[in-house]
Amino acid sequence: MITRDLAPKLMEAAQVWPSITLTGPRQSGKTTLSRALFPNHQYETLEAPDVRAFAAEDPRAFLAQFPEGAVLDEVQRVPDLLSYLQGIIDADPVPGRWILTGSQNLTLLETVSQSLAGRTAVHNLLPLTRGETTRFPRHPKTLDETLLTGSYPRIFDEGHEASDWLGSYIATYIERDVRTISNVGDPTNFQRFVSLCAGRTAQLLNYSSIAGDCGISQPTAKAWLSILETSFVAFRLPVLHTNLRKRLVKLPKLHFYDTGIVCWLLGIRTPEQLRTHPLRGAIFEAWVVSEIAKHRANQGETGGISYYRDRNGAEVDLMVESPNGTTIIEAKSSETASSNLFDGSRRVRGHLSQSTRRCSVVVVYGGDQRQRRGTDSLIPWRELHAFDWDA
Question: Would you give the DSSP letter of residue 95?
Fold first, then answer.
C-alpha cells in the first residue's frame, strides 16, 4: 500500500471528531486506507448480506459488538444504523472512535446530515492523483498512457491490464450502484447515456442535446447525471460567478474524475488510438481539472473551482480561488512550448484584473520543459501534482 495524500487530514480529524465519514467511488481505496490508518479498530462491512441483516434488525446489539469503536464499511446500506450511533457518540464522544465509509455520496451524506450533524468530519477519497500513482513501482511514464490507464489503485497495485479492469469496473460497479441508488428502468439505455456523457467530457453540459441523442426526456437526463455524480463518476464544473459586466455562459461543464473510464467508454484501448483521437485535447483538459479537484479534496477543500467563458469567446478551462488570489489555468495537450498557449488565459485575466486581488496564469501542457514567462508559468503535465495551487 502507498501513502495517500488524504491520510494527514484523516489523522487530524481523528484527534478532534468522534467519527469520520469517508466517501468516494468504489475501489478508490477507502477500506484499505481506513484499516491502515486505524489498525486497532475492529472492522465490519455492511456489504455482506448477513451482517447487513443483523445491523438492520437489531442495530443496538450490532453496535454493542464494538465497545471501543470500529471501522464500518458501506454504512449507507443500513442508513437507520446512524441514528443509533448518534446516541452512542453523544454518550461517549471519544475522538476517532468511529470510522464510517461509503461509496454513495448523496445517499450517505443525507443520512449523515440527519443523524450525525456536528459529530462527524466528512472527507472524500477520490481516485489517485498523479503524485500518488508515481509511488507505485509500475506506473505510466507517458502522457497518453497516463490518460488511458486512469487512476484507480487496483490497476497499479495488482498489475491489471487497465482496459480489462475498467471494463469490469463499469459493468460491476457503475451499473450495480445505479440499481442501488435509483430504479433505472432501462440499464442498456443508461449505459448509452454514460457513453454519451463521456463523449461530452470537458464540454458545456446541454441536457437537451444529451437527452435527444439518447432518446430520453430532459428530466431523465438530469436524474441520470445526478446518479453519476452520486457515484463519483462525473461532476459539474460551474461557471465563474463575477460582477463583471460580461455576458457569461451560464451552463456548467461536464467532467469525469477518471480519464481511464472516459477512454474506455469511447472505445479507446491503446495509446496510439488516443494520440490521434479527436477528443484527446478534451480528455487532457478533463485530466488536468480532475487532478486539481482531487488535490483540493485531499486538502479537505470543497468548491473554489470554476471555469470562465463569455459570449465573446473568451474562455479558460479552470479558475482556482485561494486565500491569496485567483489562478487561471489552461490545459493544452500540445508538446511544444509557445507563447500562443497563453493567449486565451491572458485575455481573460485582462477581463478580471479589476475584480480580483491577484490573478496569476498557469498553462499545463503536454511537453517536458518548465518555463517562466514574466509572472506566468508553463508547467509540464508530469509536474502538475508538484505545483502549489494555493500559493
Answer: T
Predicted TM-score (pTM) of the model is 0.93
Range of the domain at 34: 7-124
Same domain, 173 and 261: yes
Claim to verify: residue 83 and residue 158 sit in the same structural domain: no
pLDDT single digits (tens) 10-40: 999 999 999 999 999 989 999 999 999 999 9
Could you tell me where the beta strands, DSSP code E, fall in 281-314? 305-309
| Nearby residues of 168 by Cβ (< 8 Å), 6 or more positions away | none
Strand residue runs (E) in the chain = 19-23, 42-45, 70-73, 98-102, 120-124, 203-204, 234-237, 253-256, 305-309, 315-322, 325-332, 359-365, 371-373, 376-380
| 21 touches 56 (CB < 8 A) | no
Looking at the structure, tell me whether residues 115 and 178 fall in a common domain. no
Q: Alpha-carbon torsion 161, 129, 201, 382, what sign?
A: negative
Provide the residue type at 55 as one letter: A
Q: Identify whether residues 107 and 40 lie together within a single domain.
A: yes
